[in-house]
Specification:
It contains 26 helices and 26 strands. By secondary structure, the protein is of the alpha+beta class. The protein folds into 5 domains: 67 residues, Alpha-Beta Plaits; 261 residues, no CATH class; 88 residues, Distorted Sandwich (Calcium-transporting ATPase, cytoplasmic transduction domain A), CATH 2.70.150; 125 residues, 3-Layer(aba) Sandwich (Rossmann fold), CATH 3.40.50.1000; 116 residues, Calcium-transporting ATPase, cytoplasmic domain N, CATH 3.40.1110.10. Helix content is 49%, strand content 19%.
Length: 735
């Protein structure tokens, strides 16, 4: 299975994106497809043994749209300036056209040869000549409309195309009758209606395009963080190259004031790096030989050389951009409802317009009135606002999340976060910083403390558990060499084992002793260490307990405040940890967490999450993203408090790159504001169509309330503009 994102041209409303999505899903070899109207792209998963990119692009073409190739890092064509110039030209033409056609109605002076009563033919020809540029300007709309009608996926363009051509052809027929000598037909020319409808549709798309560009700003800022070129070391000499020329394994040089070009590992030098765009840490962090560097970080004061490890699409920044773009291509449940409604809406509107047209003819209200009403209904009912209501709000909110260090992988997550009523926290590295230190050593062997730690640390060096950091730091600080380890095994939830100098070494918790039938005569000492808030590590050699290590951690400074805020929001808070009960309760008491479940393995964590969900709880699990991956995957929303370099391999739904628990509160608040905004948008979109269609049908004409195609197109633009402005308010969410 392969996944690609294609840039799609020609989509104008949710009926377009729905039609393309349905068409793609019907094709053999396409496993899943999600089409994004706002970002103008499609995320497609397919069987690469059956299809390739070219095949998929052919499907897009057959559906009535055009693939512009791979959607790469938000590099989209920039036609804003050309669109603005075209819009100004056609604005002037529209004013001239309206002056010629309606100036006399409001007492404006007119040219005699364009007087509709004294020179009807020259008047009609002038209107036709002024209308033709608008037909060319809007030919893409007309072409798309009929192409989608042929493919049985009528969309907004279909409504406009049918309306405009009906008005145009009827006017041409009336002009023909005028030329034949019947001057009464001059009253039934609707050239300006066809032209102005196209103008207002284009105006709506221009506004829509500007708003879409604004929603991409957060992603663009991330892309621009990485410098365009760098200095590499070739045969001892410096060489300036572009980012694309850097290969994995190259030695890259960074001097004070420069940005790190690619992800890598320092091999020479020491410096302070500003990694705030990823970690949220405002203070520069010391980085030295052996430390990892992230592309986009600012080198403050040192000279370093680092080996390129993750370049191009594999870099941390690229991973973040990819996650944000993919998130915008998933659909929240509320969006699927709007899409379904839009899919039925266009055909229903066409039917209503035709029925109204026939009713007008049957009642003897005249063909001119019937065609005018027909066109008005089609134009006023264009579901632009309905199509924008949900995706625009989702994309803007995901941009807000990304800007604040919250990477949301699925739009569904953004909706569900507002419904969370239970949050389960892992302890180490989540409620605490995970910067563990060896606090106490109880040595029951003939080895020195350093030799005891050397034994355990040699195994811990191969582990990814946060506790291993404490042993690494001790070994580095005391300059202790590692021993050779054979047959290393990580037993999740228990500890680690290995062979050192033909001796079987076990390093882990008391459950590891039980698992290996080792008698524990040090339970009282364990209890004493645990009461001080230590995590307990036993060191065993050939079934003999050599010592107990107490590893201490620091509670996050804002953890208590976050827990309190969640509880005041009626969210149940649970601590779920593999640590022993006394240590867990010691931390829980400080944080005022009443519900503590300790001594659990990863599989037991998963079982507890499952039980909570079976009780009807909507569960968010917050952990380190690696050791807690089964529980994170099973929860309704899995949140990992992670460093930027872990992003590529993370299995959670949300990644907090700022490594700050307050981002959980921010996520919930953004979710609530987003859902409220979407509901407002959908209400106004449905309200607009519910109100305007009857007016367009002439239901309220006895009361003097009526509209024509031009007013209908303006009303449609204003409805879309209202939805856009409302969605853009999300950018001002106070966090």
């Amino acid at each position: 299975m392969k996944k690609i994102i294609l840039s799609i041209d020609g989509m104008t409303c949710s009926a377009c994106s729905n039609g393309l999505e349905k068409y793609l899903l019907k094709q053999d070899g396409i496993i899943n497809a999600s089409v994004n109207l706002v970002m103008s792209n499609a995320l497609i998963e397919y069987d690469e043994s059956k299809l390739n990119q070219k095949n998929i692009e052919e499907f897009v073409k057959k559906a009535g749209f055009k693939s512009l190739g791979l959607y790469t890092d938000i590099k989209t064509k920039n036609n804003a300036k050309n669109n603005k110039i075209l819009f100004i030209i056609f604005l002037i033409l529209a004013i001239v056209l309206m002056y010629v056609s309606m100036g006399h109605m409001v007492g404006l002076p007119t040219f005699e040869f364009l007087n509709m009563h004294t020179h009807p033919i020259s008047y009609a020809l002038a209107l036709l000549i002024l209308t033709i540029p608008f037909i060319i300007y809007g030919f893409d709309i007309i072409k798309s409309g009929f192409k989608n009608l042929i493919h049985k996926a009528p969309n907004m363009d279909t409504l406009v195309a049918i309306g405009v051509l009906s008005s145009l052809l009827y006017s041409i027929y009336n002009m023909y009758m005028l030329i034949r000598g019947d001057s009464s037909y001059v009253e039934h020319l609707y050239f300006e209606s066809a032209a102005i409808v196209i103008f207002f549709i284009k105006l709506g798309r221009y506004i829509d395009g500007v708003s879409k560009d604004k929603t991409k700003e957060a992603i663009q800022k991330l892309v621009q963080i990485t410098p365009k070129d760098a200095t590499i070391k070739v045969e001892g000499k410096e060489k300036r190259v572009t980012i694309d020329e850097i290969n994995k394994g190259d030695i890259v040089i960074s001097k004070p004031g420069e940005r790190i070009s690619v992800d890598g590992e320092i091999i020479v030098g020491k410096t302070h790096l500003d990694e705030s765009f990823i970690t949220g840490e405002s203070k520069p962090i010391v980085r030295t030989i052996g430390d990892k560097v992230i592309a986009g970080s600012i080198n403050y004061d040192g000279y370093i050389e680092y080996k390129a490890e993750r370049i191009g699409r594999d870099s941390t920044i690229s991973e973040i951009v990819k996650l944000v773009i993919e998130a915008t291509n998933t659909k929240a449940p509320i969006a699927k409802i709007a899409d379904k409604v839009s899919g039925y809406f266009v055909p229903v509107v066409i039917i209503i317009a035709f029925i109204t047209f026939l009713v007008y003819l049957t009642l003897g209200l005249g063909f001119a009135s019937a065609i005018n009403t027909f066109v008005t209904i089609l134009v006023v009912a264009c579901p632009c606002s309905l199509g924008l209501a949900t995706p625009l709000a989702i994309v803007i909110s995901e941009g807000v999340c990304a800007t604040n260090g919250i990477l949301v992988k699925k739009s569904e997550t953004l909706e569900n976060a507002s419904k969370i009523n239970t949050i389960v926290f892992d302890k180490t590295g989540t409620l605490t910083y995970g910067t563990l230190k060896i606090a106490e050593i109880l040595n029951y062997s003939n080895l020195s403390n350093d030799e005891l730690i050397q034994l355990a640390g040699s195994l811990e060096e191969k582990s990814t558990h946060p506790i291993s950091k404490a042993f690494r730091e001790y070994l580095e600080t005391n300059k202790i060499n590692l021993l050779n380890v054979e047959k290393f095994e990580d037993i999740s939830g228990y500890g680690i084992t290995g062979i050192i100098d033909d001796n079987t070494i076990l390093v882990g918790n008391s459950k590891l002793l039980d698992r290996n039938n080792i008698e524990n005569n040090y339970k009282e000492q364990e209890s004493m260490l645990a009461e001080k808030g230590n995590s307990i590590i036993y060191i065993v050699k050939n079934s003999e307990i050599l010592g107990i290590i107490g590893v201490n951690d620091i509670i996050r400074e804002n953890a208590k405040e976050i827990i309190s805020t969640l509880k005041h929001s009626n969210i149940d808070v649970i601590m779920l940890t593999g640590d022993n009960e006394k240590t867990a309760k010691s931390i829980a008491n400080i944080l005022e967490i009443k519900n503590v479940i300790a001594n659990v393995t990863p599989s037991e964590k998963t079982k507890i999450i499952k039980e909570l969900k079976e009780e009807g709880k909507i569960v968010m699990m917050c952990g380190d993203g690696i050791n807690d991956s089964p529980a994170l995957a099973l929860s309704d929303i899995g949140v990992s408090v992670n460093s930027g370099t872990d992003i590529a391999r993370d299995s959670s739904d949300v990644i907090l790159t700022k490594n700050d628990l307050s981002s959980i509160i921010n996520l919930i608040n953004i979710s609530k504001e987003t859902i409220k905004n979407i509901k407002q948008n959908l209400f106004w979109a449905f309200f607009y169509n519910t109100l305007m269609i009857p007016i367009a049908m002439g239901v309220l004409s006895p009361f003097g309330i009526a509209i024509n195609p031009m007013i209908a197109s303006l009303a449609m633009v204003l409805s879309s503009f209202t939805v856009i402005l409302n969605a853009l308010r999300l950018k001002r969410i106070k966090l």
